[in-house]
Amino acid sequence: MAMEIRYATNPTETKTYDTERLRQEYLIEGLFVPGKLNLVYSHVDRFITGGAVPTTEPVLLEADKHDMGADYFLERREIGIINVGAQGIVTVDGTDYVLENKDGLYVGLGNKQVVFKSADAANPARFYLSSTPAHKNYPTQKVAISEAEPQHLGSITNSNERTIYKYIHLNGIQSCQLVMGMTLLKSGNMWNTMPCHTHNRRSEVYFYFDMPEDGVVFHLMGEPTETRHVVVRNEQAIISPSWSIHSGVGTSNYTFIWAMAGENQEFSDMDAVAMKDLK
């Protein structure tokens, strides 16, 4: 297991960052390495973002005792898992959960052993992970994409026709603070979250995937009057602090997983930014 530490930043300082520094602070690369678990611990709402690719051997979700101060990963945390690869199995304290592509699983505080396995080592599962601090136990629960609550938004006219699938939220799988789901853009659509917003009461992490090898998303971030962009490629994530917008346009349609944490779990709690105010 490898865990990288990222510290929190502020909008005044971020205005001075060049491209390389923006990428160092906010972009998460190299999540998926065969046979390994990679994690990034951010001091922004204490998010842990990760990826696990089990091949011939299972991969164990372990705690970094030095950085987490815990004997096991979920001692004081909860986690959301979405499989973006081939069929896989997540074993939680001896119980197996089979996840097909785009299926999700919530695992609550207090579960001591989480193990990732692939049904076929030659065509492995790719488990994307989002974890936040927790204060009580909620039941472990699987949700298939066919069972997730869908919300259809946008239009082909605005190049943002998309379906949002909510997995972990107030009216779905219950959690302490983690809110998690996935957005699929329809063919011919490239924009997400535009018009954009901020939400001062919580942060968010976007994970982009289902992109062609030569495809990119120009992810927009920063204060509404001080926007910047970061070029994001397939299976990369980007951290969005509460003061930052989080929007993007791709060279083709794509899919992204969003995860939020903070003061509340209201999906609609956001501060809209008028198009005229963007700079």
UniProtKB/TrEMBL annotation:
Q: What is its EC number?
A: 5.3.1.17
- What cofactor is this protein dependent on? Zn(2+)
Q: In which pathway does it act?
A: Glycan metabolism; pectin degradation; 2-dehydro-3-deoxy-D-gluconate from pectin: step 4/5
- Pfam families registered for this protein in UniProt: KduI (PF04962)
Top-rank taxon, per record = Bacteria
Instruction: For this UniProt record, give its keywords in alphabetical order, as a comma-separated list.
Output: Isomerase, Metal-binding, Zinc
Instruction: Write out the catalysed reaction.
Output: 5-dehydro-4-deoxy-D-glucuronate = 3-deoxy-D-glycero-2,5-hexodiulosonate
| BP-aspect Gene Ontology terms | D-galacturonate catabolic process; D-glucuronate catabolic process; pectin catabolic process
Q: Where does Zn(2+) bind?
A: 197, 199, 204, 246
**Annotated family:** Belongs to the KduI family.
Q: What does this protein do?
A: Catalyzes the isomerization of 5-dehydro-4-deoxy-D-glucuronate to 3-deoxy-D-glycero-2,5-hexodiulosonate.
HAMAP family registered for this protein in UniProt: KduI
Name this polypeptide is given? 4-deoxy-L-threo-5-hexosulose-uronate ketol-isomerase
Q: What is the lineage of its organism?
A: Bacteria, Bacillati, Bacillota, Bacilli, Bacillales
